[in-house]
Design goal:
The protein is of the alpha/beta class and 217 residues long. The protein has helices at 37-45, 87-103, 122-131, 150-167, 184-196, and strands spanning 8-13, 25-31, 63-69, 72-76, 107-115, 138-143, 171-175. The chain is globular and about 45 Å long.
Length: 217
Amino acid sequence: MSTLRNIEFVTTVADTRALPPAHGAEVAFVGRSNAGKSSAINALAQHKRMAFVSKTPGRTQHINFFRVGENRFLVDLPGYGYAAVPVAARAQWNELIGGYVQSRSCLRGVVLIMDARRQLTGLDRELFAWLEPTGTPVHVLLSKSDKLNRQQAVAALRSVDAALQSIYANSSVQLFSSTRKIGIVEAARKIQQWLAAAEIKNPRLKGSKTGGSLNKD
């Protein structure tokens, strides 16, 4: 049985100063608003509403922690890039995302959810820039791939893979669809490998600042 099925909600925080102690291993989920992040978490955990799914982008405004084993957690970060929210709210999301990925010592990997019909944006590249000093591995899920035909899906996969290799070597990418159950086993295996891994060999930077902005393409 997949360890991701044994999932339970733990806590939600709205400020990096309120993060729980950094113990064990965490895998974070991040992506643009409306890319299908919550649906991906639900599909991987085989729960219909473990993570909140909304037709309105930008609803995830906190960091949500889900336990999937002893000292093993999935972390749902706020969606970014949705313009129809107050500037102050977007700034808070940036602070949460940047502060978490730059300084979380138990972060083992990041799952970036992208709409398969889009290319990497400036927002996504800014996320990679935040991660660059830590070398945290990133696995990209090209969500909603069922909306593309086979030729389009293969082309999207190759295009994003080529872009990733040019900007962030410690990355991988796959096709994914939460509704058609495409790529779920492959994605779950990657996450389980990260959660089971020993301590990261590369020490994370201390005193990293939460900088940058995820408000523009």
